[in-house]
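At your convenience, could you comment on the folded chain following this short note?
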Amino acid sequence: MKHNTAWGIGGVVFWQAHRGGGGFERPDNTLVSAHYAWDLGGAAELDIRTTADGQIICLHDPTLRRTTDAPETIADIPVESLPYASFVHVDAGAKFSPAFAGARVPLLKDIFAEMPALPEARVYLDLKNIDLERLANLIAEYGLEERVWIAGPERPYLAAMRRLFPAVGTMQWIGGKSGYEIESKFLASASEGFAGLSQIQLHLNDKIEPENATDATAEKRVRNATTWRYTIGPEFISSALALCSEANIDLELFPWKFDEGDLFALLDLGVRWFATDEPERFSTTVRRWLSKKNWA
């Protein structure tokens, strides 16, 4: 496979593929998805867990049920209670699409082993149940200190990783049921000077109607009612960018859904770091924006 040798899009916009392939374009948390993100110029985001025998694996859910063809005898057992050998041969690609049959639940070291030959490859690691010292030792073993971000929702936990391993990036991701909740969590981290962080990510959720309707028709009505689709407004994003710039950290946004106009508006505000569930569509849209700005 021929790989893209450039990190980011045009050296201007940087991004990560949620769960590697976002679950929409590639089976998540696999070598297939990691290579897919790298080929498009992005970083691969991977969820990591520890098995009963101490192996660090890439898997979002606590069990194998959703993403693999694991037999019923182990499908619902938390992987932290299973040795890696008991599921090393399960298929983690066929459920997504027959085209990816044969993909496996990888060890994190399988991902790391691919990266020395790909100098532009980057990864975000979303910590589930992990021993920080063991993880730090594995990153050091492969010499990837400057190509890895550790991600999670709790800033103090990430700060502990930064103390343990100062060269590794750390990113707090912030989600919530409302824009107000997400904004409040961001401001709480800002009040602490973003201590221990190199990045912070805000989830951009779509607005819904006052009666909380969630069907497709209601969503369409909401989208037609306003030019701004997200619960966090442009004014807050601009102020967040300023706060992050002052603290010398990156602000990353994760729009769960987007049209071209939505993404163009975020880019026009000055946002340069993103996460996406749709790597190919995202990267194509960003390239159109760069072309319009004569940056391509």
